[in-house]
Amino acid sequence: MRVLVVDDDSTLCQWLSEKLHAHGHSCRLVHDGALALEAIEQEVYDVVLLDRMLPGMDGFSVLRALQGRQHPPVMLLSALDRDIDRVMGLELGAEDYMGKPFNMNELRLRLDIIVGRDKRRSEHSQVLTFADLKVDCLQRSAWRGGKRIELTDKEIKLLMLLMEHPGKVLSRTLLLERVWGYQFDPQTNLIDVHLSKLRAKIDKGFSLPLIRTLRSVGYCLGEVEKR
């Protein structure tokens, strides 16, 4: 999993990062609500661990700002663990609410459940569309302009990731982790080779190219979102 950890306690952030990294997950650490929103806009995460009490914009304010926008599932962490706090957090859109102090094994289990639930929701959406491009997630098939496009397993997975996040730049590292499931030498050209083949299949013969390369950054479907 790619986890965004949002907490103003730098010691706790570092401890969480080390524990999650030991189980194969990668983390980004930020310490206030405004930076959390920026991170969610700029990168793709599987889940957000969000502290309730933050300087400036608190956790509830972050949840309110995310309402109506596409974002990863959020688990709230807080020393404020009354029933009224839990209910309010869940009503604002959090997937789960966990009081501090917490058991790390329980936290990891809850994260697994949240991310698994979110992936099942994505699969049930079945069909992704962008412009005249369509992908059936269950059948693992793609069409553009009504024409069927034959793609390999890796190509369809790469295309699905791009279509799930249109307008967002996906880094090579993220694509490697999501599609191949483990880390590679950052200098590898594996992603570039596969994206080159995918682009040839998706964009060849069409006047409007959909897959864009941002040199030294990553890849994007459509125009990059303006921030």
TrEMBL record:
<dbReference type="Pfam" id="PF00072">
    <property type="entry name" value="Response_reg"/>
</dbReference>
<dbReference type="InterPro" id="IPR039420">
    <property type="entry name" value="WalR-like"/>
</dbReference>
<feature type="DNA-binding region" description="OmpR/PhoB-type">
    <location>
        <begin position="125"/>
        <end position="223"/>
    </location>
</feature>
<dbReference type="GO" id="GO:0000976">
    <property type="term" value="F:transcription cis-regulatory region binding"/>
</dbReference>
<dbReference type="GO" id="GO:0032993">
    <property type="term" value="C:protein-DNA complex"/>
</dbReference>
<feature type="domain" description="OmpR/PhoB-type">
    <location>
        <begin position="125"/>
        <end position="223"/>
    </location>
</feature>
<protein>
    <submittedName>
        <fullName>DNA-binding response regulator</fullName>
    </submittedName>
</protein>
<dbReference type="Pfam" id="PF00486">
    <property type="entry name" value="Trans_reg_C"/>
</dbReference>
<keyword id="KW-0902">Two-component regulatory system</keyword>
<dbReference type="InterPro" id="IPR001867">
    <property type="entry name" value="OmpR/PhoB-type_DNA-bd"/>
</dbReference>
<keyword id="KW-0804">Transcription</keyword>
<dbReference type="InterPro" id="IPR036388">
    <property type="entry name" value="WH-like_DNA-bd_sf"/>
</dbReference>
<feature type="domain" description="Response regulatory">
    <location>
        <begin position="2"/>
        <end position="115"/>
    </location>
</feature>
<keyword id="KW-0238">DNA-binding</keyword>
<dbReference type="GO" id="GO:0000156">
    <property type="term" value="F:phosphorelay response regulator activity"/>
</dbReference>
<keyword id="KW-0805">Transcription regulation</keyword>
<keyword id="KW-0597">Phosphoprotein</keyword>
<dbReference type="GO" id="GO:0005829">
    <property type="term" value="C:cytosol"/>
</dbReference>
<dbReference type="InterPro" id="IPR011006">
    <property type="entry name" value="CheY-like_superfamily"/>
</dbReference>
<dbReference type="InterPro" id="IPR001789">
    <property type="entry name" value="Sig_transdc_resp-reg_receiver"/>
</dbReference>
<dbReference type="GO" id="GO:0006355">
    <property type="term" value="P:regulation of DNA-templated transcription"/>
</dbReference>
<feature type="modified residue" description="4-aspartylphosphate">
    <location>
        <position position="51"/>
    </location>
</feature>
